[in-house]
Known about the structure:
This protein is mainly alpha-helical. It has one domain. 79% of the residues lie in helices and 0% in strands. The chain is built from seven helices and no strands. The protein is globular and about 55 Å long. The two termini are 30 Å apart. The model has no long low-confidence stretch (mean pLDDT 93).
Amino acid sequence: MIAAVVTSLLIAPGADGLLGACLAMLMLAIACNDARHYLIPNELTAAAFGLAFLHAAVITPNAGASSLFWMVFRASAVALPLLLLMVFYRHWRGREGLGLGDVKLAAVAGAWLELPTAAAVIELAALSAIAAYVAGTVMRRRPLRATAFLPFGLFMAPAIWIGWLSEHLLLRWAYPWPG
């Protein structure tokens, strides 16, 4: 956690880095809870979403309502496909494939990140979850199961912070600081 906080502050000094550090701590808490209990607490997701509102207000204070509207639009645009996937899978297979906590976490990704980054974050999380599952079953010499439970938040939460970090690194590369 200390490394994530320090990295956030080094990559984005000031209020932006401090909010990014808070995001890192919330994402770590979500990942740990999902790993242990297969549950993403609403309180942590709500805190991360609220922090996104604060981030939008602090980082682009002159943008006003348009930046907040755009943030809500991105959150909806990212969460809606996962919500539809969750409902479709439940109807098709008759069991849960994705939890509502994962959908809410996707909304957090949309609130914090630009749409291309949010899509990349979901892909990174999905591929990481699959790779971890396959590696774990191979190491334990067990067969792969189509019905295995994976705590998706364990992979998506850190990917959100990595997405935030990558956006700031890209900005730093595109617009280097003077000096």
